[in-house]
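Shipment paperwork, digital attachment
Item: protein structure file
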Amino acid sequence: MKHKFAVQLYTLRNECERDFPDTLRTLGRMGWAGVETAGLHGHAAEEIAEVLREAGLKTAGMHISVERLRAEPDSVKAEARTLGTRRLICPSVPHEWRHEQGYIRLREELNAAAGELRDEGFTVSFHNHAFEFETRVGATDALSYLLAPEPDNAILAEIDVYWVSRAGRDPAAFVAPYRGRMPTMHLKDMTADERRTYAEIGTGRIDFEALLLWGERSGVEWYVVEQDICEGDPLDSVRTSLDNLHALADRLGI
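Attachment content:
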């Protein structure tokens, strides 16, 4: 499964802003199989696609705001095709939509986008934080409403296991309904101290063994590491996460 480990480039946003191509080459040398983009830092998609090929990296997916997804679908599709991915992920909820009617609107907008893109081979997913659990939509929390595994809901899941844990839920139990509906999963560890802040994979309290085993049975195509804030050098942090994931995959024999 080592060919399924990718890094969300928001983790390395400062490094990418300084020198995006060099950062990608560094990740390739480090042994990552792929990246998930969070913007192109002023570079053309064609240029970045060439650097990715040179570095031996694939594109696990693209984080795209719901606003851009709806306003610029042709531009989004062209960028995704150039980068070699069909996975489009809404990374968050606009601040002004974080209420019941806003989540209802978000589900409608993302389903409309998914319906328009489906015939061209694209999928639309949603990446969570913890705050979605704070709002109710009918009888359920907003995240479960957005991702409900129902025939008329085309929104796929990109569960961020740190934020599920931060909300007081068990990540392994929470992902269970999304078998076959989660092409990408966000891996992020949590410190074992009272801060409960971001940590390198394998250094905190989250049980990744159970999540990886579930993912391999349930259709996960990419395990995407994201660390919002790194206490040291972010490149050192992602190296530690990758080394620990490789060790875990070896131990599990997957």
